[in-house]
């Protein structure tokens, strides 16, 4: 059941055609870009993959393509994000049937729960899942912060295999890393805080899930390799460069998902990996001076001539 996943596991961005259909050809190019960059896994149908914008049919399209294009070269983790337990269990069954290696679930949301129900939610998911279950800690979206003691207890009991931490709470993440180490490391801990991955590694993280890794997977892989070699100067050097690259999100008149994923898609479009930078409705694609801003940052860090 429990296959350790560590290293660089980007949350794979979903390309769309100008007609808002799933762009399989661009997706194949992106997955080759990621795997040739040396990543250790692929996380599909997370926030960066537009899971909340996707119908069940679109989720199937994305999962099938991810497993097909990965060709078993790296593990595929599938987001099974939905409001309540029974809906998530249906997504788990479908994802497992399609051949993913693990599933990633948030706390229930919309009908907010106490920690008693959140814990029961994860236990029921694990009972129903033929593949390992990961917790996705993203309180900005689901309005519940997963406590470290809950995560550690579920890890020690084999309910959870790991945690994708997108809480932005570096203090809580460091405490979780310490407690995880003291408990014999039952959980694999990956940070989604892509601009301070070096700090997460110093804290004891087992890898990263960087949205920016779609644009420059090789940079995050070099950083991971430097961390494994104990070369902290190189770890920081790569992080400083990636922090400069992250400035692609500093666009004008756009915020949130439109700025973050919009800039990643625009960068992939400018790099020739995506055929367009189309966003899911009702989000509009970056255009004009914002595209030129992204182009300028890519040139500054050496990804474009």
- Could you give me the name of the CATH homologous superfamily? Aldolase class I
CATH topology description: TIM Barrel
Number of domains: 1
- The rounded distance between the terminal residues' Cα atoms is 46 Å
What is the average per-residue confidence, as pLDDT, rounded to a whole number? 96
Percent helix, as a range, is: 40-55%
Query: Structural class given helices, strands, pairing?
Result: alpha/beta
Architecture (CATH level 2) name: Alpha-Beta Barrel
- Please outline the major beta sheet: 8 strands, parallel
Count of helices? 12
The helix-strand sequence is EHEHEHEHEHHEHEHEHHHH
Please indicate the percent range of residues in DSSP E strands (runs of 2 or more).
Answer: 5-15%
**What is the 3D shape?**
globular
Order of strands across the main sheet: 1-8-7-6-5-4-3-2
Give the low-pLDDT segments.
none
What is the number of beta strands? 8
* CATH level-1 class: Alpha Beta
| Integer-rounded radius of gyration | 18 Å
Topology summary:
Blueprint: E1 7-8, H1 24-36, E2 42-44, H2 56-70, E3 76-79, H3 85-97, E4 102-105, H4 115-128, E5 133-137, H5 139-142, H6 148-156, E6 162-165, H7 170-182, E7 188-191, H8 197-203, E8 207-208, H9 217-229, H10 232-245, H11 256-270, H12 289-300
Parallel strand pairs: 1-8, 2-3, 3-4, 4-5, 5-6, 6-7, 7-8
